[in-house]
Amino acid sequence: MVTYVLDASALLRSLDREAGCHRIDQLLDEHADQRAEAIIPAVQWGEIIGILKKRTGTSQAAVAQARGLGLRIVPVEGLRAENAISLKAAFGLSYMDAFAAELASDSLDHILVTADYDFKPADSHIRIEFLPAKPRP
Amino acid sequence: MAFMAAEPVTLDSVNLHDGVQLNDATGPSVSASGSRVRLTYENGQLTGEPADLAEDYRPHSAEEVNAAIEALTTMFAGQPSLEDEYFRDKADNRANNKERESQW
To answer: Which letter does DSSP use for residue B36 in this model?
Structure first.
């Protein structure tokens, strides 16, 4: 079964209903139907919650709905942190992005889905599906 | 960062909802009974309330997922892009890190 590793940019792209959003809807449907799995590193999940909270202030509604997407949130343990820092160094990723790359490196069945082209240097090492670039304003 | 406390947060400074008592031995994310506490920082206050991990992070049906997508996209319809805000924050963090590194 394919495992899709989502990063913050992919999920936020979906909420913005911009280019590639229907692809994320599809992945989440497959996950809910157990035809595929959609997962996200805990550090990226926290980033999404931070953006939603910045936008909505004291309301907990957006955060509760985000949990309702049913993504499996993968915690960071020692080995993942050590691997992430190696990928950060190898591909010039941000520390946070390195956790998404690290999760995608678990298996050839793992595909990182992202709208963030900072991951481009890592596409020799992990499978990456880039969402289409947004049209420039 | 919007959620960084201006002052150091101590156990004594966390406002707790009814029935939550912090555990001095383990820190503000764990209650005295050993259950996890959800921390929220709003309006300069860090608050804690019981977290229902089994319910909050349970698997969801396709119908529930679709309902969540619908609710979220309706909530943010017509607003500035969330993704753009994420990339702005990311760029700001990168610039701040570079600046701090240069000051070492």
So the answer is: B
Coil, helix or strand for B97?
Answer: helix
Q: Please provide the size of chain B in residues.
A: 104
ipTM: 0.91
Residue-wise pLDDT tens digits, A45-99: 999 999 999 999 877 899 999 999 999 999 999 999 999 999 999 999 999 999 9
Token readout for A39 is: 């997962």
To which residue do tokens 């509604």 refer?
A61
Tokens of B16: 């707790």
Residue A20 CB contacts under 8 Å (≥ 6 apart), including other chains = A10, A13, A14, A115, A131, A132
Distance (Å) from the alpha carbon of A109 to chain B's nearest alpha carbon: 21
Measure in Å the smallest separation between the Cα of B63 and chain A Cα atoms.
Answer: 8
For residues B100 and B94, give the distance between their C-alpha atoms in angstroms, rounded to a whole number.
10
